[in-house]
Design goal:
229 residues, alpha/beta, Rossmann fold, DNA polymerase, domain 1, 2 domains, 9 helices, 7 strands, 41% helix, 13% strand
């Protein structure tokens, strides 16, 4: 775990969802028997195109919710791999209503709540997708808010998305610790004034854009120690 100067006591911790709390890298594993050697490539293509389409749609001013974008991205990935199977497509889409949870999530959120911090999700995910994921893993008791970009009608990293967290929590940016495993998301949150912990689970190189995160941790399990708990 690496860090810059100490963090002033935050009032709230706001978490990205996909890749931070929910393990999208394992999303397609239930269908490995059907996908075979294409499993890993499908997962990679699907996620890459999903993010690209959010950025493109934001720049184009052509917002649709994340469920729609996820379907567009899946169609692209399936097309590249020559997988024309409507039933498989439907099954893969349903996975986003119950994505796998990282092993360090429950214990970390429970600790933060016990220490009196407010906790929230701020995600590109649609309200329906996030409701399914949160309820499916019984996270309601350790989260104060679940915030979807549906309310801003634009995707991260637009500044208006991050402002949703300050508005909904009624907390200034400097009193929020934003936590994400996505480097671009971490930089964008820092740019608008949040303190940021980047969860670098896979030892990635830091992005070279402005406003690097304040802290770098290897897992969510490092977060309580970072906060002095």
């Amino acid at each position: 775990m690496t860090a810059r100067p100490t963090l002033a006591s935050p009032v709230a911790c706001v978490f990205d969802a996909y890749g931070t709390l929910f393990d999208v890298s394992r999303m397609v594993e239930p269908y490995r028997d059907r996908l075979g050697e294409k499993t890993a490539l499908l997962a990679k293509l699907w996620r890459e195109k999903q993010l690209q389409y959010t950025w493109l749609r934001s720049l184009m001013g052509a917002y649709v919710d994340f469920w729609h974008v996820t379907g567009e991205a899946l169609d692209y990935a399936l097309g590249v791999l020559g997988l024309d199977d409507p039933r498989l497509r439907a099954l893969l889409m349903q996975l986003y209503l119950a994505p796998p949870l990282f092993d360090d999530v429950n214990a970390t959120l429970t600790t933060l709540k016990a220490k009196g911090l407010r906790t929230a999700i701020l995600s590109n995910g649609s309200t329906t997708m996030l409701t399914g994921a949160v309820n499916g893993h019984n996270l309601r008791g350790v989260l104060d808010l679940v915030i979807s970009v549906d309310e801003a009608q634009i995707f991260k990293p637009h500044p208006s998305v991050y402002k949703l967290a300050t508005d909904k929590l009624g907390v200034p940016a400097e009193k929020i610790l934003f936590v994400s495993s996505n480097g671009w998301d971490a930089h964008a949150a820092r740019h608008i004034g949040f303190h940021v912990a980047w969860v670098n689970r896979s030892d990635q190189l830091r992005e070279t854009i402005p406003d690097p995160p304040d802290f770098e941790i290897r897992s969510l399990s490092d977060l309580p120690r970072l906060l002095g708990f």
